[in-house]
Amino acid sequence: MKQLYILAFLFTTSFTFAQLAPPTELQAYYSGVDFTKTGTELYDDLAVKTIAKHTLFLTYGERHQFLYDADEDPSNSSNVRLIYSGESRSKTEYLSGSNPNSPQTFNTEHVYPRSLLGDGTAEADLHLLRTCDISVNSLRGNDPFSDGSSTPNQAYFSTGSSFFPGWDWRGDVARIIMYVNLRYNEPFTDVGTLNLFLEWNAADPVSPQEIEDNRNTVISGVQGNRNPFIDNPFLATLIWGGTQAENRWGENPPDDTEAPTIPTNLMASNETSASVDLNWTASTDDIGVTAYNIFVDNVFYVSTNSSATNITVTGLSSETTYEFAVLARDLANNTSALSTSVNATTLEANTGGGSCAFETFENIPDNNSSYSDRTWTGDDNSSAQWQATRARTDQSINSRAITIDVRDMSDGSITSPLLSNGIGSLTVTTQRAFSGGSGTLDVSVNEVFVGTIPYGSDVQTSTISDINFNGNVQILISKNSSSGDRVIIDDLSWTCFPSLSVGDEVLKRVKIYPNPTKDLVKIDLTQNIETRIEIYDILGKRILTTEIKESTSLNVSSLKHGLYLIRFTQKDKSETKRLIIQ
Questions:
Q1: What are the structural domains of the chain?
Q2: pTM of the entire structure?
């Protein structure tokens, strides 16, 4: 709340002002959070911290013991300060059948409406509860928040379908909603818009020694965690961009009106039936480039959410020519003009359910019988190179093939370039070269072992199923722990595995709780629809799969401590949420 009226995941950058760091009294709490990060990386760090620090889960009835101390009127320790109206009332006036006092004039407001919360522990989370006049609480109802900053008297009001909290309270509301999104992954769209809350967060800073700081102190003393956006509203700017908020931990960056330079040398490559890789030369800026926006056919399509100068544009239609362009943006949301555009045409869709990519080794170096390191351009003719160690190029199976030496002290291997669109299953043809026995080769994806492929005197084709890594992947075929032979490898192919995508509103309402958990997690479906559940570790490896038709509980006690992703799929729609195992 601001008594004196002092008047989006986006980026990774460096700043020209002092390094962001919590004050001494908060450094122990925020230990492990890397404040050099921005965008989704900082969001994830803060989410893990905020969830892990939440160690005491109150029942809703227990809120009375702590909420009134949290909302204490700074001018009168016997009173609470009510949200929206700003009135000061005696702490004894709370509405409850067990309260012997009269009158009873205020109750508990769920700033993020209770009916919209999916996690069962959230309803009693003190960070989203505020004391409120009974009639004002009724006026607000469950309506979303809307802009009303132009109202003449600067007070709260209801339109009948939306609610403006008043000038004094819009920042408090924004920081509570951001906390709920961070802690429980609840959407902004149910209660307003992210842009609106970013504006409020900046326009109504935290007032020193006022209710918000007191709430953070009292609540963290009870349930263990803090609202990081009260500790420093600028964290929201670093994560989502938008209107620059106050930096309570140091200097704000200087006003910036200079736009970044235009990105150059935009190139398209690695076309598939549904994706195209783009890369370009970085723009420059006086403060720093924070993100690049990608335009497809002159319409904004996606942001890099970082200063990276490459991206795989997915979700495209097959056999379609697209026009791509890119612009740069900086911390102050200044944007460059669009780059010179490039065209690319996606490939024919794979309709047979077979491979989406392959490597035939037809482009390996000229025949040579010596064992040496080899590099070559793959069948997709991209600039990225395949690599082989202790390899010869003069043997064949169906046509040209690569032979690696994995005998005794030899460590022959094949390494793919970074491949987009993930990997579902891998198929490869092998045969032992020359004399020897039979055995297996190890296969790893993104440095994670996924299976073995056999070889022997006869030609054999083998498949490793259910690898199921999404995103960019790298395949390694190498020697296992036992002695081996000289092995010919040919006709490598793999099926793609789709990226985690955003689903429709039904899926967005799927809830998981408690979160974090140690053993059981409740999956709450809003509708009884057949739902596929997949849990991935942070490397993208799928480690659990099941199907449900109604709300149920999953036993996750076998999972190691850490952060996981749960993907829910209903027909052709999917939604992903975070899960923390304690």
A1: 58-224 (no CATH), 264-345 (2.60.40.10), 357-494 (2.60.120.260), 505-581 (2.60.40.3080)
A2: 0.54
